[in-house]
Specification:
By secondary structure, the chain is α+β, with helices and mostly antiparallel strands. The strands form 2 sheets. The chain has a two-stranded antiparallel sheet with strand order 1-4. The protein is rod-shaped.
Length: about 120
């Protein structure tokens, strides 16, 4: 048993290479993941949204307590959690096609990137 790890950003080129390799190797698994750059960009956007939502909630608490303002005493931002997509392998063989090894047809999916913000405020 041996393992080859192939990383690519190009589905079609990767699928073509897998098709060629399958003539001598058996494909046992495939997974997809978000590139580090795309994940970081999504997290940065989500952090801005999450902090804005935290401020809205903090202002609701301030109003409910009748305060004139609030200070953020502590804040924790966690990111990096994401659910990778499952690869969608589409195999279509017509009855007229020969039983030859074909490149898998791949489709991209969606990944869920999460960011959470928690903190404590002091109402003034």
């Amino acid at each position: 048993r041996a393992e080859i790890r192939l990383e690519t950003r190009h589905f079609q080129a990767g699928a073509a290479l897998i098709g060629k390799l399958q003539s001598t190797l058996q494909l046992s698994g495939m997974s997809f993941s978000v590139s580090p750059e795309a994940r970081r960009a999504a997290e940065n956007e989500l952090i801005t949204e999450a902090v804005a939502a935290f401020r809205v909630r903090a202002d609701i608490v301030r109003q409910a307590l009748g305060g004139a303002g609030y200070r953020v005493r502590s804040m924790s931002i966690s990111s990096g959690g994401f659910v990778p997509p499952r690869p969608v392998l589409m195999r279509a063989m017509s009855a007229a096609s020969a039983p030859e090894v074909m490149a898998p047809q791949l489709e991209g999916g969606l990944s869920q990137v999460t960011v959470s913000v928690s903190g404590a405020i002091a109402v003034e």
